[in-house]
Amino acid sequence: MAAMTDRSGLNTADPYDEELLPPPEWAPGTTMSPGTRALWAFVALAAAMAAGRIWVAPRIEAAALETWTTVFVAICVQALPFLVFGVMLSAAITAFVPPAVWRRLLPRRSGAAVPVAGVMGAVLPGCECASVPVAGGLMARGVAPAAALTFLLAAPAINPVVLVATAVAFPDSPQMVLGRFAASLIVAVLAGWAWLLLGRGEWLRVPSRPLAAAGAAARWESFRQAMRHDLMHAGGFLVVGGMAAATINVVVPASWVDGLAGVPVVSVLTLALLAVLMSICSEADAFVAASLTQFSPTAKLAFLVVGPMVDLKLIALQAGFFGRRFALRFVPLTFTLAVTVSLVVGGVLQ
Fold this sequence. Notes:
The chain is an all-alpha fold. Helix content is 72%, strand content 3%.
């Protein structure tokens, strides 16, 4: 594998190195063939459907099923327009705005660049999936890692699409929009400064990248590919999140939920962990949070702050782009800051 060291002392690796590319075709001893994977997926689906028909269906009441369907459809219908609009804007910025623009807009001093990068995150509508490759591109082109990581955390949490979606989901609680903006920006800046002080170059792998393709046709093709990729991924996570939220509302006994929701710190940690597991796109998570009516505003705020910064798909993306050593350090740091700041900001706004 061809390894290089950039001027900031960070380890870089060419993602187009032949050792990093998967084999172009299936070969025995390398991975499972597509046909075998499809067969096992079909077997697993058939088994799940049979098990559901035998053990689950007899226990589902018509009223419970109706409630589940109502909650699920409401979440998806409300969130879908914001999701599509955010994906379109994110793909347009990715395709038509060169990464060098961000580098020219940031101060040269890393400490000053961190809060500026956090505020700049408001101009990148889109889910957290888009912020990871953009942050990697910024680092590869000379932007300080602390500033790029601040941008990575802030962009999916404080952009206009997310804030408008939050206002629509919480029409009677404008403080939820203010709290989400303030808490998310504070967490992003604190995480950037913490990485600036404590982070080490060997913990972070910055992939080198080729220059963006020139020409209008190439840029439009890049836009199309980015939009299709983000919409497929984000839409899938929205459906999963809506199903999970609807299931929680129907399956989990009200006494359990009320018991957790009644303990301030426990309720905040519960929704923070739920945000990690549900991995909902930031354009849609406010509608899921609004449906969790048993929990306090502070717990819902933690759900909205943690989700765009720490979830399962984002952890996988960070580990893939920047290395496992980075993810093992940055993810716990971000989660701890997000929960702590949510508790403080939520207490102030209540």
